[in-house]
Amino acid sequence: MSAQTSSPPRRRRAQRRLARGEVWAAYGFLLPNLIGFLIFTFVPVFAALIISLTNWDLLQPAKWVGIRNYLQLMQDPLFGQVLRNTAIYVVGTVPVQMTLALLVALALNQNLPGKLFFRTAFFMPVVASTVAVALVWRWIFNADFGLLNEALYALGVKQPPHWLSSTHWALPAIMIMSVWQQIGYSMVLFLAGLQGVPAHLHEAARIDGAGPVQRFFFITIPMLTPTTFFVMVISVINSFQVFDQALIMTEGGPANATNTIVFHIYRNAFQYFHMGYAAAMAWVLFGIIFVVTLVQFRYQQRWVHYG
């Protein structure tokens, strides 16, 4: 009897030891990633916060100035223009590329000949170097011999825009290039979401007499809302950090028409050596992205349907 009564406690102790061993094993697997996060993310972010409170040019010792850099940002008209440019870029690219990516995903989700080729073709710009892509599009937008203006001439347009040298058209040109490059990434995510929509829902709706448009709006769209939410959050975050396109295609010009927040940070940090001012802008950008993302998560429950 005593052996029977003592067996369950021993079994529980063995289970607890096994559970502790699994916990330590999990920490062991996570440790390299945690160390990398601390060294390459947390420490630089904390260092940037300290630097944003100083006046430092990389050559002389840093001087503590408190929140002076942040106060200067609020009074800097150029930073206001940079914020507007970035906001226009985000608002102009995210909805367009998400809509086009969804349409492409819907087309390539059908049993069409050559769909694997077209899926690969649409995804190729994503894996291509942004610098190389920007150089190609810089040639396409060339006002004298660019492919786009030659096509406009052929269509009868007598005075096509001077894309990259115009304060009105330079930013839209960068937005067009960015939408073209980013469609493939969102398309893959939408394809995954579409393939996760249960087929029996469409079959039941078809039996009840629902047409393709009704099934799209009342089945496909609601079932895709988690994917749409994820694509929107990632796209907004990436769009706020646009940099390569402005650097390669226009260098922020003309007249700062394409100067974005990250490009402005780069210019102040590594061209003007205003490290404290650049770090303050980086933290302002972090705050903007954090607030926008927080708002998206706050209101997702109103339109995202899980399960």
Considering the chains and any ligands shown, give keywords for the structure:
307 residues, mainly alpha, 2 domains, flat
Helix content bin: over 70%
Quaternary structure type: single chain
Instruction: Determine the structural class based on helices, strands and strand pairing.
Output: mainly alpha
How many separate domains? 2
3D shape: flat
CATH superfamily of the largest domain: MetI-like
Tell me the number of strands.
2
Q: What's the story with the biggest beta sheet? A: 2 strands, antiparallel
User: Please, how many helices?
Assistant: 12
Q: Separation of termini? A: 50 Å
> Could you report the average pLDDT, rounded to the nearest whole number?
91
Helix and strand succession?
HEEHHHHHHHHHHH
Q: Could you please describe the fold and organization of this structure?
A:
There is one protein chain. Strands 1-2 form a two-stranded antiparallel sheet. The longest helix has 50 residues, at 2-51. It folds into two domains: 2-51; 77-302, MetI-like (MetI-like fold), CATH 1.10.3720. The two termini are 50 Å apart. A hairpin with a 7-residue loop joins β1 (54-55) and β2 (63-64). The chain has 307 residues and is mostly helical. 74% of the residues lie in helices and 1% in strands.
